[in-house]
Amino acid sequence: VAARVEGPRWLITQARFQEALKVLKWAAKVNRNTLPSDEVILDAMTYIEKQTLLERSKEEMEAPKEISCLRSEEEKEEEPKERSCQRSEEEGELKETSYQRSEEEEPKERSCQKIEDEGDELKERSCQRCEELNEEERKESCESWAMKVVRHFSILLLNPHLRLRTTDPHLYVFLGGLLEVPSYLLLWPIMVFVGRRRSLALLFFTCAVCIFSVMALMLIQLNELVVVVLSLAGKVAITAACQLIWAYTSELYPTKVRSLALGEANFLARLGSLCSPYINDLLGEVVVWGPSALFGLVSLVAAALALILPETRHSDLQEALKH
């Protein structure tokens, strides 16, 4: 008859660790598994034994409490009915007195509720008012911030002492070169939508107006900043006009003489640019407003002559001469 093998759990609770270790090794060998070292397994067994003893002691301590609770419940059931009746009457009296007190306290509660409601309404109104004030302050702060930024970046031109230093010849030349970019961008839409002839006349006329305005300001010795702005505006107009002349000249003349016309026009333009510094220096020493009057007059004549030319928009390039 085969010997009975006890389970390892029961052997551990009985502190029979070596026997439990043998059973675990045999089970591991049958299942082809490996176990940790004997020391680790024995430590685990000791821990399990301690936990089992703690559970048993807790159960033994809780058992008398359950018995005492059962006895107290039986004694409560055997109390005389008179005591329960007296208690119920006392409880009824307490309920009546509490009901009377609650009726007396109702007006107080209502008044308190009204005060709380009024306080909540006041809080809501004050919060709304604060939000409105905050929005107004934000708007004012944004406007003041924008004004500060504008003043900060325009301080060089608004301050008279700094303006004299800022609008020197070198900066004027730099701004004149920089403003050629918007003049080129402005030229394309007016050529397409307005036409060549009217665009050229308008640009020459704008340049003439700017030059005559500068001449008038020089005579009355007004603000120098306005003079600079008008001079740069005239620079934009005449730069766009010069670029338009190249395209317009190519469209005015047929293919056989187009190169000749462009060459002669460029030669005359270079003569004008060669003479302009001498006109400015020599005539300016005699009459301060003389160069401006001459250049403005030439621009005005050019605007009038441009109106005589034919319009070439939406027209094909000429190939042969017309006799």
Automatic annotation (TrEMBL):
Biased composition (Basic and acidic residues): 71-117
Chief location category: membrane
A Pfam family it matches: Sugar_tr
Domain of life: Eukaryota
Protein name according to UniProt: Major facilitator superfamily (MFS) profile domain-containing protein
Keyword Isomerase included in the entry's annotation: no
Taxonomic classification: Eukaryota, Metazoa, Ecdysozoa, Arthropoda, Crustacea
Gene Ontology MF annotations: transmembrane transporter activity
Keyword Transmembrane helix: yes
Assigned GO CC terms: membrane
Alphabetical UniProt keywords: Membrane, Transmembrane, Transmembrane helix
InterPro entries in the cross-refs: MFS_sugar_transport-like, MFS_trans_sf
Stretches for region Disordered: 57-117
Segments crossing the lipid bilayer: 171-193, 200-220, 226-248, 286-309
Membrane topology: Multi-pass membrane protein
Organism of provenance: Petrolisthes cinctipes (Flat porcelain crab)
Cellular localisation: Membrane
